[in-house]
Amino acid sequence: MQRVQCARVEVAGAPVGAVGPGLLVLVCAEPTDTALQAAKLVDKLLELRIFADDAGKMNRSVRDIGGGLLIVSQFTLAADTSGGNRPSFAAAAPAAQARALYEETLRLARERHPTVQAGVFGADMQVHLVNDGPVTIPLRVC
């Protein structure tokens, strides 16, 4: 997850999602993940206090600032490079399970937050962003 001033995702040169200030969320499902993790992830994304308050302290959430969420599937986050120079993606969930969890994450986010944009599952995407800070935080929900 990255705090951004703005971010957009394109497929074949055409924009499919964009946000102004908010969060770019790169999501990877693993075989043991469930809808419960998707719900916990969305809750954490909406409540995590990583935006500055009036005193410059990270004290506000994306919800507090009225920011957007741009949620993009990215199976390569499950890469294992310990066995050589070609990454293994065996730790990523099978495509059908990953798609279902990604769609559940989007559904929950849209149910709970007014500004949610998305990439296209399984597509070759180009992601453009201006990381704010930079602030990049890996999230693992159990």
Describe this structure as you would to a colleague:
- The chain is built from 3 helices and 8 strands, in the order βββαββαβαββ.
- It has 142 residues and is an alpha/beta fold.
- It has one domain (2-130): D-tyrosyl-tRNA(Tyr) deacylase (D-tyrosyl-trna(Tyr) Deacylase, Chain: A, 3-Layer(bba) Sandwich), CATH 3.50.80.10.
- Helix 1 (35-47) packs across helix 3 (95-112).
- The chain starts with a strand and ends in a 6-residue tail after the last strand.
As an assembly, this protein is single chain
- Determine and state the CATH class: Alpha Beta
The helix content is 10-25%
CATH topology: D-tyrosyl-trna(Tyr) Deacylase, Chain: A
Secondary structure tally, helices: 3
* CATH-derived architecture: 3-Layer(bba) Sandwich
Shape by Cα distribution: globular
Percentage of β-strand residues: 25-35%
Please tally the β strands and state the result. 8
How large is the radius of gyration? 15 Å
Q: SSE order in H/E notation?
A: EEEHEEHEHEE
**Mean pLDDT, nearest integer?**
96
Main structural class: alpha/beta
Look at the structure and name the CATH superfamily. Answer: D-tyrosyl-tRNA(Tyr) deacylase
Q: Sheet bearing the most strands, described?
A: 6 strands, mixed
Tally of structural domains:
1
Poorly predicted spans:
none
The span between the termini is 16 Å
